[in-house]
Amino acid sequence: MAKEFRTLLTEIKLPYELAYGATWTKFFEGMKEKKIYGTKCSRCGRILVPARTFCPRCFVDTDEWVEVSPQGTVLTWSYANYRYFGMPMDPPFISALIKLDGSDVGFLHIVAGFDLDDFEVVRQTVKTGMRVKAVWEDERKGHIMDIRHFEPL
Amino acid sequence: MGRPVAIIGVGQTKHGRRMDVSYPDLVREAVLRVFEDTGLTPDDIDGVVSGTMPSMMEGVALTHFYFADAMQAVGKPILKTETCGSTGVSIAHTAFYWVASGMADIVLAVGHEKMNEGDSQATMTTVCEPFYQRHFVAGAPGAFSMQSRVWMDNFGIPEDKVRDAAAYISKTHHDSAFDNPYAHVKLRVTIDDVKNSKIITYPIRLLDVCPNSDGACAVIFASEEAVRKLGRKKVAWVKGIGFRGEEYYFGDSDKAVWQSAIQAAKEAYDQAGINDPRKDLDVAEVYNPFTFQEMMFYECFGFCGFGEAPDLVLKGIFARDGQLPCDPSGGTLCSNPIGATGLIRVAEAALQVMDKAGDHQIPGARTALGHAMGGADQFNGIMIVGSEM
């Protein structure tokens, strides 16, 4: 049996105030109105969701705003069934990359609206390529969780 | 490539849950071992490179300050390199650049982590985008599980076959870890144990996932002149290095035909003169915190065609006695002190070509690849070493 040595229990708590800037402020104001905004790159033509100030590939400003559909196609998913300290979502939940209609990249959110505790139900229900739509919260605060989840169409 | 550079020695701690030592003492354990291995002293070192994962892993910021004493860096130039999970390979690259440039002759590279002192997934999730993505990514396993599914679906690989191949990888790496005195997890598992273990982030189950390890690794890089002056014969020459990044947002780029992995390998192969990696490499230490992802790396590194890895895994092509043995040390799957992990991959590759890998030596290995990946599938780095300059 290895000798046990002392440990120090300690904690660091730090408050942060993160600036959204103009682009993300507009995106989250849109969420309050049940609108999902992307921005279009004038060079490569891709519509990026969430909206970006600039195209990460072309490095040009994306000044054209486009409202994309609240419906889309699941590109990939995973069933999260473990917990870490401070996890913002309660497991089990299904993370998914969703290509919203009218956009060109994957939008990360969750898929729900059925029995998540029964994994067999999950496996039967969730497929890559399945169609989903956003389910909005009644009271929206301009936050990513204004979309409660995406549910199967 | 600059002037020739060789790895002349390595030192590792016993990796594991190391609550028996403080973090600086853990770092010193690896540093003492590399000095013991090389016969050098701190006076011989021209510069020190260090790195970890995010500082909140252990709650101490700028750990290279914390470890200046343990690394004997006082009075010397010191650099810190951080690229998340690929930190260890980036430390090796930094040390290589330093010597290759001619600005230093002997450089000490040290990677370290003590994952059991904090909450690793809570820490790693802070790497993810705070406004849109952090809520949903479910730590490292979540991101890599989603990537694995993109790969399976993209190439139409039956999920059952991938599951079988991943279980084979888990079983064989866990067996290999028994031959590595520094490995963390020493556990005999069966294929069924893996397939029936708890779902972490489906399709990934507990025995598909690396542990939280405490550990450190120290490697000494030297110029050709220093190697000659010291009279060293068994060294590992750096033959090629490659590193590539991708866009930050998870969802912006294709993670099945994974460009950062493909391009990093290509860059290193071009430098090392490798045309057919499955034939030209004798052993590879592929970063494999998740069994499924290991197969994606085989494909992106050109060890086989896209969609072919599960079949070849099940045929034993990448097993210890196969055509291209991968992770004979048990790999990241059995030991993952993250800031050290990539450097351990390079150190293990170096040990192989120096014929010093002990019970997990691949007989006659002359060319070996070390690799690590970092971020939410964002970075890949490679270092190829060989027994001949």
What does this structure look like?
The complex is a heterodimer of chains A (153) and B (389). Chain A has helices at residues 21-32, 119-125; strands at residues 36-40, 47-48, 64-68, 71-80, 93-100, 107-111, 131-136, 147-152. Chain A has 153 residues and is α+β, with helices and mostly antiparallel strands. Chain A has one domain (21-152). The mean pLDDT of chain A is 95. With 389 residues, chain B is of the alpha/beta class. Chain B is globular and about 55 Å long. In chain B, helix 3 (87-100) crosses helix 14 (338-353). The mean pLDDT of chain B is 96. A nine-stranded mixed beta sheet of chain B has the order 3-2-4-7-1-8-11-10-9. In chain B, strands 5-6 form a two-stranded antiparallel ribbon. Chain B has a domain at 5-120 and 212-230: Thiolase/Chalcone synthase (Peroxisomal Thiolase, Chain A, domain 1, 3-Layer(aba) Sandwich). Chain A binds chain B through residues 2-5, 7, 10, 12, 18, 20, 24, 28, 48, 50, 56-57, 75-82, 84-89, 91, 93, 95-97, 105-110, 119, 122-123, 128-129, 144-145, and chain B through 19-20, 56, 59, 119-122, 125, 130-139, 141-142, 145-147, 149-150, 153, 198-204, 247-252.
The gist of it:
With 153 residues, chain A is an alpha+beta fold. Chain A is built from 2 helices and 8 strands.
Summarize the SSE layout with pairings:
The complex is a heterodimer of chains A (153) and B (389).
Chain A: H1 21-32, E1 36-40, E2 47-48, E3 64-68, E4 71-80, E5 93-100, E6 107-111, H2 119-125, E7 131-136, E8 147-152
Antiparallel strand pairs in A: 1-2, 1-3, 4-5, 4-7, 5-6, 7-8
Chain B: E1 5-12, H1 23-38, E2 47-51, H2 63-66, E3 78-80, H3 87-100, E4 106-114, H4 120-125, H5 139-154, H6 159-177, H7 191-196, E5 199-202, E6 204-205, E7 214-223, H8 224-230, E8 236-245, H9 259-272, H10 277-280, E9 283-285, H11 291-300, H12 309-314, H13 331-334, H14 338-353, E10 367-374, E11 379-386
Parallel strand pairs in B: 2-3, 2-4, 9-10
Antiparallel strand pairs in B: 1-7, 1-8, 4-7, 5-6, 8-11, 10-11
